[in-house]
Design goal:
Butyryl-CoA Dehydrogenase, subunit A, domain 3; 3 domains; about 550 residues; five-stranded mixed β-barrel
Length: about 550
């Protein structure tokens, strides 16, 4: 058989009825809700968001995301000559994402003094973070921790004076040098241990005086993510400090001022379901040197603001993952035909997409509303109340909504959504981590109940604002349902999840209405607050224009 005839016989079919590549679709241009939320940002900031969204949509960027998650980090405990080095090797794609995120300030911009974002820093950063989450979320772990760690460091003027300039740097420096000798640095944290997990008060790692203001830490951490950060905020039991003993916070550098490695011994990297591009380690401290941060014995109080900021990022990231996943599903069904008719024009698919779009809109609106509350909390008591009460509520609902929604988006693509060559399988594996990190669902509910049990002032302030934003005859009834759920949860702590979810969906509906989303807000409120319970998507009835909902939130690009 000749070569030409062989090639002819192998040419078996034409590829058609496949959706075109998702690359190149700018999600700032294609996200009217995000643009409406960000409309209060200065024009220069909005222009930057459009440019960043364009970078996120590039085929090269999407390929880097695939590579960063295909070629996983590798722990190198020793060099070729047998010296202990405890270094993690990342694919170049990881470093490319880190370089980009540091350059746009995702790791520090809320601590900048740039007047352009004054009073809007958390919201401006959240919009950038949201867009980045839809491309490659793993690298955002050290980015989040660096941003949040500054809140804990603010309690120590000396540390802030020495460390903040390098934290604010927009230069990514992955070199293995002492943090303050670098052109830029990242910070991590290590709190959980084998025996305690979220219960950090059960930690056994101990710290003893080592002279010159340093303490020597001996113990372990069961999960310490992004182990190539330049320093870590860790919790340890302080000993030998008179009556001021107990769980305390420390800043532990990976490299010492003399350029030698600190006494951290990485045992292994976790083999995780998702978040694969990011290394998460098990580590032992063999007299590792660290500086105390905050008051001795008040480690939890020192890190609580850091925890709050990371919870915001969990919600923003989950909303970003939900949005990009549904955007890809909508893109697919607008080009895929079944029985000669586009999937996007078929009533059942329209109902599913519209139902999903309502949850994505609610999640996005809530996450950005929380960021705005953070911006205003220092000058507005009602916003401070919202931030305190709603942080665990929003993290609870948004993060828990992500995995089932992304799973439904995968179904829209069928088998093409399930394979690792595409994006949705990675997004699906990524989704659960945000519900676990910085407190699982039950931890969020317990935090909510701590606020509720301290008296009704904070709850009353938030509910008053929600009722005003909801408006209409049904608003009072919706608020009364929450009050009933709160009373029930105080009497029966096992029902706290009912309160958390009811608060979340009511707040989401209120925010969609405050944003002026008209029939979209109406559909969310009627189906989530006044409709029948449903466990899967596609339960809208024909009173709601499903196609109009999808087209309004996902315009054709």
């Amino acid at each position: 058989m000749s070569e030409s005839s062989y090639l002819s016989s192998a040419d078996t079919h034409e590829v058609f009825n496949q959706s075109p590549p998702f690359a190149g679709l700018n999600q700032w241009v294609g996200d009217p809700l995000l643009r409406r939320i960000a409309d209060i940002l200065p024009d220069a900031v909005q222009s930057g968001l459009q440019g960043h969204a364009g970078w996120c949509a590039q085929a090269e960027t999407l390929e880097m995301a695939r590579l960063a998650n295909r070629h996983l980090p590798v722990l190198k405990t020793h060099d070729a000559k047998g010296h202990r080095i405890d270094q993690v090797e990342f694919h170049p794609a990881w470093h490319a994402f880190m370089r980009k995120s540091v350059a746009i300030g995702l790791h520090c911009s809320i601590w900048d003094d740039d007047p352009a974002e004054r009073g809007l820093r958390n919201l401006a950063r959240a919009t950038r973070f949201y867009l980045s989450s839809g491309v490659e979320a793993g690298h955002l772990c050290p980015v989040t921790m660096t941003n949040a760690a500054v809140a804990a460091l603010m309690g120590d003027n000396d540390i802030v004076a020495r460390w903040l300039p390098a934290i604010r740097s927009r230069k990514y420096d992955p070199s293995h040098n002492f943090a303050l000798a670098k052109t830029g640095l990242t910070l991590g944290m290590g709190m959980t241990e084998k025996q305690g997990g979220t219960d950090v008060r059960a930690n056994t790692t101990r710290a003893v005086p080592a002279g010159e203001g340093l303490w020597a830490l001996t113990g372990h951490k069961w999960f310490m993510s992004a182990p190539m950060c330049d320093a870590f905020l860790v919790l340890a039991q302080m000993e030998g400090h008179g009556n001021d003993t107990g769980l305390s916070c420390f800043l532990l550098p990976r490299m010492l001022p003399d350029g030698k490695p600190n006494a951290l011994r990485f045992q292994r990297l976790k083999d995780k379901l998702g978040n694969r591009s990011n290394a998460s380690s098990e580590v032992e401290f063999h007299g590792a040197l660290a500086w105390p941060v905050g008051e001795p014995g008040r480690g939890v109080a020192t890190i609580i603001e850091m925890v709050t900021l990371t919870r915001l990022d969990c919600a923003v990231s989950s909303a970003g993952l939900m949005r990009i996943s549904l955007a890809e599903a909508v893109h697919h069904v607008r080009h895929r035909k079944v029985s000669g008719k586009l999937l996007a024009d078929q009533p059942l698919m329209q109902r599913v997409l519209a139902d999903m779009a309502l949850d994505v809109a609610g999640a996005t609106a809530l996450a950005m509303r929380l960021a705005s509350a953070f911006d205003q909390a220092s000058v507005d008591a009602s916003q401070a109340a919202y931030a305190r009460l709603m942080t665990p509520v929003i993290k609870y609902w948004v993060c828990k909504s992500a995995a089932p929604l992304i799973g439904e988006a995968m179904e829209c693509l069928g088998g093409n959504g399930y394979i690792e060559d595409g994006n949705l399988a990675r997004h699906y594996r990524e989704a659960p981590v945000n519900a676990i990190w910085e407190g699982s669902g039950n931890v969020m509910c317990l935090d909510l109940m701590r606020v509720v049990s301290k008296g009704g002032r904070i709850l009353d302030a938030v509910l008053s604002g929600l009722q005003e934003d909801l408006g209409g005859a049904s608003a009072a009834k919706s608020i009364e349902v929450i009050r009933t759920a709160a009373g029930m949860a105080e009497a029966d702590p096992g029902s706290a999840r009912i309160l958390a979810e009811q608060l979340a969906i009511t707040a989401a509906g209120a925010e969609l209405r405050r944003l002026g989303l008209g029939f979209i807000a109406d559909a969310f409120i009627e189906t989530r607050l006044g409709g029948l319970w449903r466990s899967t998507y596609g339960m809208l009835d024909n009173r709601h224009d499903a196609a109009a909902i999808v087209d309004a939130l996902y315009p054709r690009l």
